[in-house]
Amino acid sequence: MVDINLSQPPFSLLDEKGRQRVRDGVDLAYFNESEVILDAGQPGEHVFLIHKGEVAELDLNASERERRIGHYTAGDLFGAISILNGTSRYRFQAEQESLCYLLPRALFEDICTAYPAFDNYFRQHLAEKARHVLERRAEGGMSMARFMLARVAECMREPVVVEGHTTIAEAVTHLRERHADSLLVSHAGRCGMVTKTDLLDALVQQGLPHSAEVGGIAHFTLITSHADDYLFTALVSMTRHEVARVVVMEGAQAVGVVELTDVLGYFSSRAHAVSLQIEQAEDIEALAHASARLPQLIQTLTAQGVKLRFAMELLAALNGRIIHKAFRFLIPEDRQSQSCLLVMGSEGRGEQILKTDQDNALILADGSDWPGIEDAMGALTDTLGRLGYPPCPGNIMVSNPQWVASESAWRGKIARWASSRDPDALMNLAIMLDAHAIAGNASLLEGLREHLFARGSHDELLLSYFARGVLRYSTPLTLFGTLKRPEHGIDIKKGGIFPIVHGVRTLALERRVAATSTFARLDALVDDGRLDRPFADDLGEAMSLFSELRLRQQLENLEGNDASQEPNRVVVQRLSGFERDLLREALHTVKEFKQRLSQRFHLEY
């Protein structure tokens, strides 16, 4: 029996009996440097698992410079696809003296038949593999990971629906009998909601009689969800919109209600404790204390297996409420209705995890007069600094008069940027495309975004210049194989995150997608028919993987208090074999995305 480590995927998908079959059935083979282990066109007879050494994967049909498409080291396996397809598409050649475990074809096929999950591993897309990792964490007993897989349907209550002519007294009786905290109100063809608090306010604060109808006090702007949405998404919605319940819809029909108390009963969340502290803050100092807890919350979420996309959404909601509340503390109420505070960059897309530099701007309603606005914006910038958001090195902040302007002035800026198409102008357009209204009058941004779409969505020359940014940084797949391995690591932001973010942003401009999150834009582009679902899912999972690897480095720097470590660099040698496999596939997805964009926007010219 061979002593072989089978603790990593795909062998971790087997039970102990299956792993024992592998140990009993493998042989150990030695290969000289430059020896061809498996050649293109050759039938696949073994699955190879590297014990020592390095192996290159070569595409013999590619040019000499681009021939090397894969690089495998200890713990990696290859050859399985050759068995499934009948022959090998590529050549696998030892780059140094190598020892490999050989799993015979017949045994591999028998194990695939006996263990469907093992078989699926070799047939899955990147998105499916990443999803599988999360599911395995859940099976391992991690409460947060199980929560991440829970759907709204598992936690929703049956709705209690009354007509709009129901009296307050009758509504109270319904709540008591059904042990509910809220009622859905059907009134004049609309669906609204009334809560215990609404009924109490109507009686005590407004002095309405018990016979008053609930249709007159119900709220008809509802925060909604769907039964098959993730429960964590509902929690994010509650956090973002400052509500304690969401209504579950099926088409135009309300089929359930999810209460915050039920969600927190399903999973006790530190996020709610931080959220509560933010809401209870009555001054900047108290807000700063709440803001300082966010890094610890992130560490808890990641340690417990949270899917990074959901963590991003939750943190974006919490950061948004912090900035929103700071704006309300500092800016008079009459000025808030005449202006709109924007956050941009990763904050605007809702894709930051640890706090990033300030990237913000202000839109003023045409005709508004605000004496002393420079001092007010300077104070806001200083306050955000106290709350943990450092100044932007590029000075893209409201303290810079260039980023504070009226609606008309902003439209003029956008027109000039679109016409000049120089690098600074294109960067400014990208910044505005990611802008998200965080405080004040959000309709001011909606009008500006429509103007941006009208100016840029059909301008093929502008789109071509804009898209060219995806080629700014090379994907680390060619010069040193699939993964570069310099000691200082590969820049995951430039090589992976940026091409996806900017490429999706370009398509969003072309298709007039108002969403700012890269993930939401991907969903919208699928609905629009611009991207197919499997490829969009792979792009989303690649983005999540890059962000997770980057976050891991940032958290290590945070724990070690070593600011000299570059937070965007991932040292490939420190990754597990499975992580290298995922990273390699993710970078191939980025490369394919660049090729698609090059063809669509004629970037080769």
From TrEMBL:
CDD domains: CAP_ED, CBS_pair_CAP-ED_NT_Pol-beta-like_DUF294_assoc, NT_GlnE_GlnD_like. InterPro entries: CBS_dom, CBS_dom_sf, cNMP-bd_dom, cNMP-bd_dom_sf, DUF294_put_nucleoTrafse_sb-bd, GlnD_Uridyltrans_N, MgtE_transporter, RmlC-like_jellyroll. Pfam families: CBS (PF00571), cNMP_binding (PF00027), DUF294 (PF03445), DUF294_C (PF10335). SMART domains: CBS, cNMP. Gene3D superfamilies: CBS-domain (3.10.580.10), Jelly Rolls (2.60.120.10). Residues 10-111 form the Cyclic nucleotide-binding domain. This is Nucleotidyltransferase substrate binding domain-containing protein. It comes from Chromohalobacter canadensis.
